[in-house]
From TrEMBL:
PANTHER family assigned: BLL7405 PROTEIN (PTHR34001:SF3)
Database matches in Pfam families: OMP_b-brl (PF13505)
Keywords carried by this UniProt record: Cell outer membrane, Membrane, Signal
Membrane listed as a keyword: yes
Protein name, UniProt field: Outer membrane protein, 31 kDa
Organism: Mesorhizobium plurifarium
Length: 241
């Protein structure tokens, strides 16, 4: 008499377990949660290369004073249009904070073909030629920008330095050739975009002023100064670590 209730209880347990298994088998599986993509972080060192075009004016100022006043003092100012290319390497480090602001430091050095020349000829024969060239240009700058994930817009500024050379040829003979190492300042803005976690491309504008420098004083009252300032537009690629 006790076997029947026990058998019925066992059967009820088996049926309940089967129903639960069937319900689980028929229930749709939950869609997997897509992974959350982390935003790009600009913090870290980088190294890269660049090329740029430069344009501006070379300003030359001459002053001639004779002790006896005869002939009278001769003063002149000349503005010569200049252009050329620069190409070099750069290295820097960025720090990102508050998930959007980026502050950094960068240094670069470039070979330069930027310069200007003026020529005077008579009957097709050159009688005078003057050249002013920037031989190389380097900068050490700070930059501050705002990041939208992989895109960074920034301003920059700091120290600029380089070497200039002036050459004067009269009748095919070089009568003056001088080189100067000089320092000045630069300021500008740029845009950089990271196409991968390790490679970024960008473009950058800069105004460069290497200042005014006396390039000639013949000890007899003749002095010549030049003022070198120009604009550059750069394209660059950086490799980040």
């Amino acid at each position: 008499m006790k076997i029947i209730p026990t058998s019925m209880a066992a059967m009820a347990i088996v049926l309940a377990a089967g129903s639960a298994f069937a319900a689980d088998a028929l229930a749709p599986e939950a869609a997997p949660t897509p992974p959350v993509e982390e935003s790009f972080n600009w913090t870290g060192p980088y190294f890269g290369g660049f090329g740029s075009f430069a344009v501006g004016d070379m300003n030359l100022n001459s002053r001639q004073i004779f002790a006896d006043g005869n002939p009278p003092p001769i003063n002149g100012a000349f503005e010569i249009s200049a252009s050329g290319f620069l190409g070099g390497i750069q290295a820097g480090y960025d720090w990102q904070f508050d998930n959007r602001w980026v502050i950094g430091a960068v240094a670069d050095i470039a070979a330069s073909s930027y310069g200007a020349s003026v020529t005077a000829s008579v009957d097709g024969a050159e009688i005078f030629n003057g050249e002013v060239d920037v031989k190389y240009l380097g900068t050490v700058r700070a930059r501050l920008g705002h990041a939208w994930d992989r895109t960074l817009i920034y301003g920059h500024g700091g120290l600029a330095f380089g070497k200039t050379e002036q050459t004067l040829t009269v009748g095919g003979t070089t009568v003056f050739n001088e080189k100067q190492t000089r320092a000045g300042w630069t300021i500008g803005a740029g845009l950089e975009h990271a196409i991968t976690d390790r490679i970024s491309f960008g473009t950058e504008y800069a105004y460069v002023d290497l200042g005014s420098k006396q390039i000639l004083d013949n000890g007899e009252g003749l002095t010549i100064k030049d003022d070198v300032a120009f604009h550059t537009l750069k394209a660059f690629v950086n490799f980040r670590f």
